[in-house]
């Protein structure tokens, strides 16, 4: 009696295997990037009362900041003078990790914060005492209870050309960029408008009143708290990211279907 010989597997892989592996790889890469970005973003909501004194702030400044900004805040070739910058600017720059500056470049990037909240408050108090400047606003300005519709209109007129209409940030000239605002705290939103860090203009009360600044902050908080109504936001970067998505998944799907039809016909 003839023995039945077992049929060997052809070893052909499913045409969907490669597409599945690519999709899984993209998802893992995107998840790791999103997690790393969230970990590095600063989310400090308000100024913290410090138990350190102005003298403590002076010592911290002289030990960590005076090399660039001078012992008497007079500045140097490595850093600007700090006359009139105020504690609000100090909080913005240090609570986002922009200062101390890691290296010279087109602009100071956000990075992990180097000091505690109390130390930042003490340094700010020293600079405010030595050369007064913009200070912290009333709590009402940061409460997120302004007119978000009016704030959105003001943001689109004054800010969207750099920060994107959805606050997703964007590229500027000479290697500079406007940062995304999706994790920016209320206090740092206000501080940026008042102090005009780096490439941002100063929005004084003649340009935007305190109430209008409150409305802009309310609008940005609305964007942070509400998901995109149209589904996947794709970074809210407009046609570039949308076209890339269509190219990878749309064209990729057509190629996968073509390979599958060819395999079936053979």
UniProtKB/TrEMBL annotation:
It is a multi-pass membrane protein. Coiled coil: none annotated. It is found in: Cell membrane. It is an enzyme of class 7 (translocase). It holds the Pfam family Cytochrome_CBB3. The keyword Heme applies. Its main location: membrane. Its EC number is 7.1.1.8. Keywords: Cell membrane, Electron transport, Heme, Iron, Membrane, Metal-binding, Repeat, Respiratory chain, Translocase, Transmembrane, Transmembrane helix, Transport. The keyword Transmembrane helix applies. It comes from the Bacteria. InterPro entries: bc1_cytC-su (IPR009152), Cyt_c-like_dom (IPR009056), Cyt_c-like_dom_sf (IPR036909), Cytochrome_c_Oxidase_Subunit (IPR050597). Residues 52-131, 146-224 form the Cytochrome c domain. The chain crosses the membrane at residues 244-263. It catalyses: a quinol + 2 Fe(III)-[cytochrome c](out) = a quinone + 2 Fe(II)-[cytochrome c](out) + 2 H(+)(out). The cytochrome bc1 complex is composed of a cytochrome b (QcrB), the Rieske iron-sulfur protein (QcrA) and a diheme cytochrome c (QcrC) subunit. This is Cytochrome bc1 complex cytochrome c subunit. It comes from Microbacterium marmarense.
